[in-house]
User: Which sequence fits this backbone?
């Protein structure tokens, strides 16, 4: 084969190789996107918890030992989605607390329906930047809440606002912080299926 023919054959084959490389790259990208889709929710939640993005509050084991002499006003708001037959409201519309001080507040909730229902509370604070400094030690929002027909309860929150908020350029003048909750209906857990032997005998009580 002459040198000219060899170069000509290389040029003919090159588009095929390029196509193969592009195909492999696309396949790798697709696999990466699938992996990202599965990881996106926990990663996003972790990102929000670490950065306070979108007004996401923090979780803490205990309040600081030192309490500042600076005060901040915390306001409370409560909402319920239309598919959840509950009433939900804060027992205190606002409280004024010291930075670093552990505080206790509560919300009152009632199931107004004739059936057992389960809800999950989503939450945030405004201004959004305050989420990085708003720490919850205990909160009903950490778990789903199930209420029997007509049941009503007070649900508590234990929190503090970190004194490092004074170092924030946009929050150092301590504007009021609003903590908002929105309850949404969630499906109740499905009943556990009976085992083969129990199904065959109709249960152990027979």
Assistant:
């Amino acid at each position: 084969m002459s040198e000219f023919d060899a170069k000509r054959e290389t040029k003919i084959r090159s588009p095929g190789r390029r196509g193969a490389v592009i195909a492999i790259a696309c396949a790798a990208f697709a696999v990466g996107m699938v992996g990202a889709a599965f990881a996106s929710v926990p990663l996003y939640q972790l990102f929000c918890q670490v950065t306070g993005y979108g007004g996401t509050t923090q979780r803490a084991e205990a309040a600081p030992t030192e309490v500042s002499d600076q005060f901040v006003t915390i306001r409370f708001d409560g909402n319920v989605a239309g598919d959840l037959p509950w009433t939900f409201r804060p027992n205190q519309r606002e409280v004024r607390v010291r930075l670093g001080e552990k505080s206790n507040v509560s919300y009152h909730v009632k199931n107004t329906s004739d059936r057992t229902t389960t809800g999950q509370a989503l939450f945030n604070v405004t201004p959004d930047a305050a989420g990085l400094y708003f720490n919850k030690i205990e909160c009903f929002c950490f778990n789903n809440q199930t209420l029997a027909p007509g049941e009503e309860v007070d649900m508590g929150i234990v929190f503090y606002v970190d004194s490092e908020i004074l170092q924030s350029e946009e929050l150092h003048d301590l504007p009021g912080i609003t903590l908002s909750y929105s309850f949404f209906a969630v499906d109740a857990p499905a009943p556990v299926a009976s085992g083969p032997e129990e199904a065959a005998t109709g249960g152990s009580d027979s």
Summary: The chain has a mean pLDDT of 77. Residues 94 and 142 are 22 Å apart (CA to CA). Residues 1-51 form one domain. The chain has two helices and ten strands.
